[in-house]
Structures are given as C-alpha cells and as structure tokens.
Design goal:
It is a single chain. This protein is of the alpha/beta class and 195 residues long. 23% of the residues lie in helices and 22% in strands.
Length: 195
C-alpha cells in the first residue's frame, strides 16, 4: 500500500458521525401586507427591474426591455433561444457569448429580493453569471416573506445545486464606488407572472 492510499484509508476510517442539524425555532414576525409590492421594491433597491404582468406573451415583454439583444439562451420552454443552439451547449465556456439568459425561479423572498434558482432551471450552473443580462420569470404566488420561510421550502436532497440571486452583479470594492455587472450579469429583470 502506498503512502497516499494509507492516508486516504486513514481519513475514510476516521470520519465523524452524522450530527443532526440545528433546529431553528419559529419566530413570530410581522410581515408586509403586500408581499408582491415589497418584493418589487427590494428588486429595484438592489439594482434590478421588476415587471408585474398578466400577459402570456413574455417574449414580447423581453423584446421590449432588450430590443437590441442578438443572442438569447432560454431555459423556459415557451420562450425560444435566439442566435444560440441551447441543446448543443456541452461546455460552460460555450455560453461566453450569451447576451441574455432567461430562466424561471422557484420562489422569491420579499425581505431582500432574492430568488431561489436550481441547476435544473439554469440549464448550466454558469448561465446566470456568464450572461450579460438576466431575466427570471417568477409566479406571483411563490413569494415568501423572509429567509426563514425560504429555507423551510428548500429540500437539498432534491437538488444538486441551487443559489439565491438578488439583482445584477455588483461591487463597491474599488474606491467605494458601486459598479454594476462587475463579475456577472449587468442587468437583472424579474417578470412576475400570474400562473
């Protein structure tokens, strides 16, 4: 047995036992009367746009918001990709030229404008971060009040990867000046639909 194998076997034999997760108590908290309006205001506050619509023609709304976009990668069945063959993408770097990514979110959080998006909804893990612009479709009924409710909804045993997205990429590290689109999407639009 090599030294490497011996080290790996020793590590495998000395794994600690499973420790149960901490049970977080349920706190009574005051929530906003209108979660949709609070969510919309938080999206605006973090630098995004929020459009509330009853229309079924989401593609028209996207074209109105982004009239000069040439390459659209859509993870939503009802919206076609444009300028890129989404089914032929096998490596993340092939998404480098995507102008606009369109995907659905699972639910939104009113207190901070965050949206839970899973790998299944993204198509590729890098998509929401490599595209120039990001559009997330979200059912108006899927907005929860706060992160306590959000974490109650997440079942990590059912997803391989998921993330909260709140607004476009931003940084204020350099001379304390806020810069949008520093390491990811330059714009973030949420379209709240009635399903």
């Amino acid at each position: 047995m090599t030294d490497r194998e011996q080290i790996l076997n020793t590590i495998a034999a000395n794994k600690p036992g499973i420790i149960p997760s901490i049970v977080i108590p349920k706190f009574k908290r005051k929530t906003a009367e209108n979660l949709i309006e609070q969510f919309k205001q938080m999206i605006i506050h973090v630098g995004g746009r929020c459009i509330i619509t009853n229309s079924n023609d989401i593609f028209q709304i996207i074209e109105e918001q982004y009239p000069k976009i040439e390459m659209i990668y859509s993870c939503v069945n009802e919206i076609s990709s444009k300028g890129v063959m989404s089914e032929n993408i096998s490596k993340p770097h092939e998404l480098n030229s995507v102008d606009l990514a369109v995907m659905e979110g699972t639910f939104g959080v009113a207190e901070n404008g965050a949206i839970w998006v899973t790998e299944k909804q993204m198509g590729h893990r890098v998509l929401p971060f490599i595209a120039e612009h990001l559009v997330i479709l979200l059912d108006q009924k899927s907005i929860v009040a706060d992160m306590h409710e959000a974490y109650d909804r997440i079942n990590l045993s059912q997803v391989s990867y998921g993330t909260f997205i709140s607004g476009p990429s931003k940084t204020a590290d350099i001379e304390q000046v806020l810069v949008m689109g520093a390491q990811g999407a330059r714009s973030h639009t949420v379209i709240l639909t009635k399903n």
